[in-house]
Write a structure and sequence with these properties.
CMP_dCMP_dom, 9-stranded mixed β-sheet, 2 domains, 362 residues, binds zinc ion, binds ligand AOF
Amino acid sequence: MQAQVLNAYMRRALELAARARGKTFPNPLVGAVVVKNGHVVGEGFHHKAGAPHAEVLALKEASGKARGAALFCTFEPCFHFGRTAPCVDAVISSGIREVYIGSKDPNPLTCGKSIRLLRRRGIRVAVGIMKKEVFRLNEPFFCAMRRQRPLVTLKVAASLDGKIATRSGRSQWITSRAARRHAHNMRKYYDAIMVGIGTVLKDDPGLEAGGGHRLTKIVVDSSLRLPLSARLLKTRQPVVVATATHNKVKEKALLMRGVKVLHTKRNSGGVDLADLLRRLHAMDIRHLLVEGGAALTGAFLDARLADKIVFYWAPLIIGGRQALGALGGRGVDTPQKAVSLKRMTMERIGRDFLIEGELVYS
Ligand code: AOF
Ligand code: ZN
């Protein structure tokens, strides 16, 4: 098959995979297409963790037509017994003759093993078709497998002059309703949301994603100040409090409300974020949205642990030396050391701008 044709089928598999965006955590987004004599005879995608894998669904739809056909899958079929049986066995027994793979599965349980097995069984395998696109669709999963921590995105909403509050501490509202609604909608693409205790004490946010989306709420609270009446405790979503102190009475009260208390290593700023991320990884959290405040987002940058930023930029000038800037922490001491943005995009949301990019540390 020509490269263009291969890409077209892989693009279809990617399209299918993307339909479940935000719904498969902790699993990746995977799509599969079965092609016979130039016709698509089976399609499938992974809907959610615990549900059948993409390849199995596509092969099921193709049924007998899979014999002698080509399979396009965004990920290498799995090798292991997990929540489901290995896809690689299903591929082999279906009589598929050629397998076109977007990317190797970075999960060490599979990582290359299925590719080798398929080849040993005389099936033609090509790997790396639209690999970049597959990677981008699954960045949280690749980050988890390679770095043993969730992918971290910082969300900031600030005025033209980079302020997130006025000199008297008022912050409602700097960005428009449209931008706020947009930010709220984006929460469904994450499996965890994090704020610092300062933000909870000041704004008492609910941190909901809506639509029944499961979003673990995490509060970074070095000295366990979280009020038991906090709004974020009032829903069924899981809540985690990350702390660097011990307080038996408070911990028990939190536990009674279903809150998980995570004790992390302590550093000069309180909770050690690298340690916290390791623990969140152990809880299978893949994609973390850090919503503030300035101290927490600044600490993520100082620790070089933030991967991306979404910045809502309002055309308002607040001014004032005492008005709080968007990012706290220590920051850098020369412009050469500033964190820069790669693959930046900018779009208009109502009257505001949304700037997104990957963070590059110098
Ligand atoms: C595939 N096809 O559609 C997906 C794969 O717990 P399980 O059994 O659902 O397995 C999850 C792992 O399987 C996941 O970590 C990743 O390595 C792979 N995902 N593989 O062949 C699929 N979603
Ligand atoms: Zn599988």
